[in-house]
Amino acid sequence: MIHKREKADIAKRPVWIIDTTLRDGEQAPGVAFTPEEKKTIAGKLAECGVNELEIGYPAISSEEQAVITEIARMQLPLRLTSWARAKWEDIDAAIRCKTQGVHISFPLSELYLQLMDKPYEWVEEQLHLLVPKAKKYFDFVSVGGQDATRTGPDILERFIREAVECGADRIRIADTVGIATPLHLMQLISRIKKAVPATLEFHAHNDLGMATANAFSAMEAGCDAVSVSVTGLGERAGNAALEELAIALKLSGRYHSSIKTERLQELCGIVAKASNRNIEDQKPVIGASVFRHESGIHCNALLKNPLSYQPFLPGEIGRDNYELVIGKHSGSAAIQHVLAGNGIAIDRKEASRLLAPVRMTADRNKRGISADELTRIYQQYIVNPQDICR
């Protein structure tokens, strides 16, 4: 007999998550992973349940080929894909690395074709030349349209149709400069899905701050796969963030993802350290401030139900617990709670007497108040109030 919860899980749509931290992520200016860091990150991504890893760009150097080959030998439980330009030399370099798949990237928009001084017919010629040849060496071949979101829909559909005819297993729609918006993207993908029976992937960039929203919207519109990076690491403003998308998919209740979200905090910390990039306090999902609360109304509600002012619990990404910060906006319930943690029990009336000195101290210091500082304020204003008048 199947329980109701199991029935709901069966009905969820499966998603395919491709991580590009080791390829597009490392293209962020100033980022250079060591071979050991790459192997560690690859292993942690596999542990997190990522379906596919875009492992790197073999043609960039012999050193890159060596580390990609080493990771391929690790026999990780996910698909490994190398990235290549629409040049046989790049694909040949990928063949030597022995990854299961290769992604071949084509310039597609009018601007990108002008930069290469090529007509669109050149793209078609290369599709018919490179894809069937690559299929002889790889289990999986995907092709991508660079700057697809600035490409006319007719050309984009033509490209996808040609790629399918050539034997491509999946087609990437790349929002190369991050100009897509969720509604426009959903309309575009819906149109393509109706016109061409193709397996589609969406690759987002975050130039306008909408990468994760666009990646999620692409899934909503019927896209079969999305590519992401850990912490959103990538060129310029970065890519769609793995941790953000994984939690969004989980909270929606409509998708089945293999991502083990409780491992995300550790993974993000490893990538942040390797890339020498700090995780901002207000970074969605993994920032230090995500589970910090100061507002009296919020803290009072959180003490009754931790989901009242949090979309998910800290344990879902591997964090210990939320934190009540005592400061300018605190209420008496939070003061009682923090003092109780220091072994001091006070009633609501006594806590209310501490609000004014707490706010004065927070204003003066322009920061929150530690539990020890709050204890000293309690001793000054409740235990020894006569000292205030001296």
TrEMBL record:
Keywords: Pyruvate, Transferase. PROSITE patterns: AIPM_HOMOCIT_SYNTH_1 (PS00815), AIPM_HOMOCIT_SYNTH_2 (PS00816), PYR_CT (PS50991). GO terms for biological process: carboxylic acid metabolic process. Signal peptide: none annotated. Residues 15-265 form the Pyruvate carboxyltransferase domain. GO terms for molecular function: acyltransferase activity, acyl groups converted into alkyl on transfer. InterPro entries: AIPM/Hcit_synth_CS, Aldolase_TIM, LeuA/HCS_post-cat, NifV/FrbC, PYR_CT. It comes from the Bacteria. Belongs to the alpha-IPM synthase/homocitrate synthase family. This is Pyruvate carboxyltransferase.
